[in-house]
Amino acid sequence: MCGRSSSSAELSPDEERIMIRDIALAAQANSKEGDTFFLITQRWWQYWIEYVNQDHTTNSYDGSSLSEHCDLANSSGLKRPPGIDNSDLIDDAVSEGSSSGMEIHDTLLEGRDYVLLPQEVWNQLHTWYGGGPTLARKVISSGLSQTEMAVEVYPLRLQLLVLPKNDRSIIRISKKETIGQLHRKACEIFDLQLDQVCIWDYYGCRKHALMNDMDKTLDDANLQMDQDILVEVINTNSTTSYQENGSSQREMSSVLVEPPKSSLSIAGGLSASRGASKSYNVELSSSQNLNSVVRDVEHPYGTSGVTTRGSHGGLTGLLNLGNTCFMNSAVQCLVHTPEFAKYFREDYHPEINWQNPLGMVGELALAFGELLRKLWAPGRTPVAPRPFKSKLARFAPQFSGHNQHDSQELLAFLLDGLHEDLNRVKDKPYIKSQDADGRPDEEVADEYWSNHIARNDSIIVDVCQGQYKSTLVCPVCDKVSVTFDPFMYLSLPLQLTTNRTMAVTVFTCDGTALPSPCTVTVPKQGRCRDLFHALSNACSLKQNERLLLVEIRNHLIHRFLEDPLILLSTIKDDDHLAAYKIPKIDNNTKYLQLVHRRREQNSDSQMVSGWKPYGTPIVSLISCDNAVRRGDIQVIVNRMILPLLRKGGNVEQAAASETSIPKTTPDQCSGDTCAANVVSNSVNKDGADSGAPPVPTLPLQLVDESNACIDLSMGADKVVKLPSSSTMLVYIDWSQKLLEKYDTQPLETLPEVLKYGPVTKKARTEPLSLYTCLEAFLREEPLLVPEDMWFCPQCKERRQASKKLDLWRLPEVLVIHLKRFSYSRSMKHKLETFVNFPIHDFDLTNYIANKNNSRRQLYELYALTNHYGSMGSGHYTAHIKLLDENKWYNFDDSHISAISEDEVNTAAAYVLFYRRVKTDDAAASNGV
């Protein structure tokens, strides 16, 4: 490839691996603030890792230490990687209109899309392989103590708004730059003097703080990704600031989507300070303001006399202490549960159970109560939940540190811990549950509930606990066991799409058919062998044929997908794949790769800009048993492009040439004989015509090993020197005259593996109903996992019983967990399924097994947590309805913004909070 150094050709793959490993170890030992790291596409990096480890044992790359994974391995023989190609990281649409230079996609994740390399490692790889573009990022200090090192992959993107000029500009700037540097940059952009300008924290198009501490960093000032900064031009004559009117503010206001932040592992033990996706589903609302991780500062705003954020009761945010959005979102939902808000704002201390060995000696309840009171106090700035986080880490070490955690797991711990701290039962009696033995369900259910309340009685039980009926049936003796167990929340399964649709364009190399798109269904977590099998059936592959699968990029073959063990997950939906029907020939053969070129017209003049690749390459086989002549290649290429000949065209007149070469037509052979002829160099060596029409000479260029082009249109008998690689690259230059005879349009439309638009639209118009999830949860199913097998009291053996759940008693507040995260032995996966959940009138009446209860079971949504991004990273927010205002808000760590009810339901919804609706037919009993 152009730009690649020849010096690396002297090194074996193993020598490259050892050299990079040693460079990485030295770089990691000396990492410090201010160092430069470079992004490299995960796809290229993974290929290089496999290339340099192909003689070792197979492992998988998980994004951890770079030096460790220089010892990664793969057993298959791989060719040397091409030049580095970072183009899949670049957001061309944003970069073209950006004043801040080249922009990368906001959806990138480390370990999935890119790897961070120390400068020394990047320099060496770039020297060997060339390519680009170069994407450099700086190491900054991070964390509460500012002693942790992180690579700032996504610097702050700020929108500068100027009044009274009404200009605006979007800039990129490190969060470690100072307010003074931002001030100077704004003046340079808008050609203003420093003493003419004051700048304001303009979050939500409101003046929150005058940013006049020039030495404070933007991180300390709590500036967030995609935030507005007001650049106010001062009237120097009257020394009064320009006062914008309401209409001006409305004109300048803009809805911004702030990408979430995560802290991900990178090479050398650093972390990547970065933003995740703006929109993981095209239906996400544009007003879902996703906040970045911010430092824990007690007073992040200036004392300017302007209104502070969260001035109304219940509208106070929580500062992110470093990946604590999982905690903040869950806490806000609990804090805004009316029963809890009322309880903890009153004197709850008499109910603290100081002696409960299952509790936290009251400390968790006290910390939560204090935090709730702060969040409901009017007029406060965002609260730093450090005391609560400390208590949480003390009693639940799994939530310590600054890693991302599961918000639902935290919620489950909080509800259980608060219950034990506030359990009114000081001495729990021992009660043995009795089997139903044919007694009425109502009697048995009340007995179970009474026994439960005798040991568990708290505000959590009053509000959140319900009861379901569990029925087990022994498959051997038909023994039926019925129990009535309490629940704190319902974990509902989502429909898991285990298959994936992939579109591949299939080509023939024998000139018998035009290329045709072929769509197949394969396992989502499958391998290339699954795709081979599906394509073979779909395209009616003959016994004497096989498929060659390749990825096409920029009209060239980017990589050969010959290894059947390649994971299909490495093939993205916007990739382009082609498959070539190749004869099964064991003889000595090479691939003949035909790349199409045409002259591009300069838009500004009549000049042409040279030959440029276009369309899709075609691949055939060429036999290397005998000497290959230029005329042999002409014969094979003529055969390959024969289906492109226009109707009424004459193959003998298709090319303007004075020379003709004998030709063997594909209809002269069949079966194995035809397969042999396809790869044979079927030129009459004596130049005599054996009855077949002459083959026209095409404008072909053979690329030799020194990248020089050899003209194949002359000297048909000249022997061609075969390349050492398995592929022979030939260009065909399509002149306008040649295009009059051939129609290359079938080569120009290569579909994507899967287009997002129609699929997403279909999923959005046909959503999965919350009722469907509930029905799947309540459906009878066998206990398939061995550890879940039931001990049958009648058989005295462990049996694979069938289990059926039914709702019996519902709580005042029903918490529903949507199981988006799935786990298996080898992988973890997040389901992006859109669930259509009702906000009003969630009717569960027909799902209650207790038919003696006439009370209507209606619920209304008042809060939910959202998760954006992938598993192990991403960002949590909460949507909460302030019942007193009857208005929805988005709680994004310290930032709170109003949203409409239409924006509540998205594919990011994770944990739902419903309150019982008081109805006229409410029963007097509080038992249901």
**Assembly of the depicted chains:** single chain
Largest beta-sheet details: 8 strands, mixed
Unreliably modeled segments = 1-6, 57-65, 71-76, 237-311, 652-671, 683-690, 756-765, 922-928
Tally of individual helices:
20
Descriptive terms for the model:
928 residues; alpha+beta; eight-stranded mixed beta sheet; disordered N terminus
What's the topology here?
Layout: H1 13-29, E1 36-41, H2 42-52, H3 66-69, E2 84-85, H4 92-96, E3 114-118, H5 119-129, E4 131-132, E5 136-142, E6 148-152, E7 156-163, E8 168-173, H6 179-190, E9 197-201, E10 209-210, E11 228-235, E12 240-241, H7 246-252, E13 261-265, E14 271-275, H8 325-335, H9 338-345, H10 363-376, H11 386-395, H12 407-421, H13 441-455, H14 459-464, E15 466-473, E16 480-487, E17 490-493, E18 499-508, E19 516-523, H15 528-538, E20 545-553, E21 556-560, E22 576-583, E23 589-601, E24 608-613, E25 618-623, H16 630-641, E26 660-662, H17 671-679, E27 694-696, E28 700-703, E29 709-711, E30 727-733, H18 736-739, H19 756-765, E31 768-769, H20 770-778, E32 781-782, E33 790-792, E34 797-799, E35 802-809, E36 813-819, E37 821-823, E38 828-830, E39 835-836, E40 842-843, E41 858-868, E42 875-882, E43 887-892, E44 895-899, E45 909-916
Parallel strand pairs: 2-4, 6-14, 7-11, 17-36, 18-22, 23-30, 31-39
Antiparallel strand pairs: 1-3, 1-5, 5-6, 7-8, 9-10, 9-11, 11-12, 13-14, 15-16, 15-35, 18-19, 20-21, 20-22, 23-24, 23-25, 26-27, 28-29, 28-30, 32-35, 33-34, 36-45, 37-38, 40-41, 41-42, 41-45, 42-43, 43-44
